[in-house]
Structure formats: structure tokens, C-alpha cells
Amino acid sequence: MEKRWNLWIVTFAIVFVIAVLTGGHKASLGQTTQSPQEIAISTASAGGAWYPIGAGMAEVIRKSVPGVQARVQTTGGGVENVKLVHDGKTEIGITISYLAYNGYHGVDPYKNKMQNIRTLCSGLSTGVMQVVVPAGSNIKSLADLKGKKVAVGPAGGGALTVLNDIFQEYGFKMSNITSSYVSYDEGVTMMTDGHIDAAVVYAALPTPAVKTLSTGPHSFRMLDLEGNIQKSLLSKYPYYVPIKIPKDMYGTGSDIRVVGTPNIVIVYSKLSEDLVYKLTKAFFEPKNLEIIHSSHPSAKALTLERAAVAAVPLHPGCEKFYREKGVLR
To answer: For 127-262, which CATH class?
Structure first.
């Protein structure tokens, strides 16, 4: 009888330990003080700026946050990243400030409120609308895209809302073009191969997909916004900023007038305060900030002073860090 009793105690102890270990792992993505073994960072397609920036962030996490690994996940871009982080399918995501705001409040393109997202840092970079066509194309203005075949970037990407805003200024809609939803690299290739009329690239400057095009054998032109159209967009939508692409960036012959939107880093709201504090602190260590800055030229815009400007509420973990540094009062 005593042997059976001892065996029962040992069995119970083993089951209890297993339950604690497995339960602790699952809870690590929730509101606990434990860290998940792996953090997924949702970015965009490999041809844009977000993927290398995300890779730089993952490198910082692996080096500077003990016990936590990080990986970069290619996605459809800003629209999808809000959903992924809200659902807890990725822990960190890069998106556009207006998409985070719209998602949090349940505004188009989101049907439901995405309120499991929090701001980790802002001022990461600025996404810029870039539209390229073959040099010999009869498309001279963005207005001429009506009725044309256009690669608009990945489904769920940030370009779609911006394009729709721009097209409305010219009196037509997204439904008036034949859209191909592909990565920016694929879109540029489809254009040079003659399968589409124009390719849209919506990413921080300089964008790898366009930079590769500018150094290749295919001549191209970049479309710019007329002054009155740019002015109208800036007055109607407070999240746009005016952008001038220098002519020597891509060899366009003249500066290109467009619009852009600031990019931010969002985080899953149910990650623990302790973990997000450690992540934020790691990102802004001088040696680690240099890793992020060097990941892509546009990432040099990230500074501690601008980081706490939030389109959606800050996560308590990063808020604690920013208060310690005097960025928030």
C-alpha cells in the first residue's frame, strides 16, 4: 500500500511539473513576466525597406534580450501586419501610422476594431509612393493609369489605401484599373517584361526594387504628383507628408514630387510589460540603434526623441522606458 502511495505521489509530481512547464510556455505570449522563446516580426515583401529593418531588429533581440529569439516574417505589408499583431500571430509588426490608427478604431480597410495593438516606437521611416513605367510608355501622369494594368504591391499592403486616395483626386477608383497583387520586386519585373503597364512601390527611400531597376538595362520613368493634387491630398488627409525624391537617387533626370506616410512599430498588447520594456531598451542602446540604422538608409530616421509619438496607445513596457529617458513626462 505504501509503495502504491509513493508511486502516486511521484506520478502526480511529474504531471505537475510538465503542466507548469508547458503552461508557462503558452502563457509566455500573454500577460506574464516570462518571455516567449521566439518573437515573430511581421514586415512586408523582401523588395521593400521593412524586411531589412525587421532583420536588424531581430538581430538586436537575439543579441541583447537573453532567452528570446526573433525571426522576420514576410507578409502582405502594413494592412496585414495590424491584423497579425492584433490576433497575436506575430508579436511585433511594422506598419503605417494611419493604418494603425484606422485598425485600432475599426475604420476602413478594417471592419472590426484591432485593439490588441500598441505602439512600441514611432518615426521608424517614411513610406513613399513610387510609380514607375517604361521609358517609352504613353502614361505621362498618374491620371493615365485609369484602365491600365498595374502591379499595386502585395495584397494587404499599405499602397492600396494611398492609391485609392490619389485616384479619387483624379476622379476614378481602384476598380478602374486591372490590379496585380504581387511583391514590389515581382511588380517591377512584370513591368520590364511587358506584362503590365506600371508598377507601384510603396516603401521607404531608397527602395531596393527601384534601385535595382535604376542600375539595370531597362529605361524607366517615375510618375510624380501635380502640385495641386499633392496640395489637396495634404489638406484632406493629415497623415500624409510631402516628399521630394531627389533626381540623383534613381537617376530620374528631375526631382519627383509625391507623398509619404510615417511608419511605426506595433506590438501585441498582451506581451508582458517586462518583456516590452526590455525590447524597447535593447532597440535604443546606442550600439543596437546603429544596427537598426545600418539595416536600411530610411531607418536612420529612428530616434529616441521621436519614438514616443503614438498613433495608437503606447504599450506600458515602452511607456515605462520612455518616461525613464525623459521622452514622456
So the answer is: alpha beta
β-sheet bridge partners, residue 134: 220
Lookup: cell for 170: 483624379
Reported pTM:
0.65
165: number of CA atoms within 13 Å, CB side? 26
12-19+22-126+265-324 and 127-262 share one fold: yes
Residues 97/247, Cβ–Cβ less than 8 Å: no
Cα(322)–Cα(273) distance, rounded to whole angstroms?
13
Q: Which fold has domain 12-19+22-126+265-324?
A: D-Maltodextrin-Binding Protein; domain 2 (3.40.190)
Farthest-apart Cα atoms in the chain, separation = 93
Q: What is the reported pLDDT for 21?
A: 47
What are the residue ranges spanned by the domains of the chain? 12-19+22-126+265-324, 127-262
Task: Calculate the alpha carbon distances from 313 to 97, 132, 212, 225, 309 in Å.
Answer: 12, 36, 38, 33, 9
Omega of the bond leading into 246 within 30 degrees of 0 (cis)? no
Neighbours of 101 (CB within 10 A): 17
Mean pLDDT, the chain, rounded, equals 89
Which residues, 6 or more positions from 136, have their beta carbon under 8 angstroms from its beta carbon? 219
Rounded to the nearest 5°, which phi and psi values hold at 175?
A: -65, -10
pLDDT tens figures, 194-244: 999 999 999 888 899 999 999 999 999 999 999 999 999 999 887 788 999
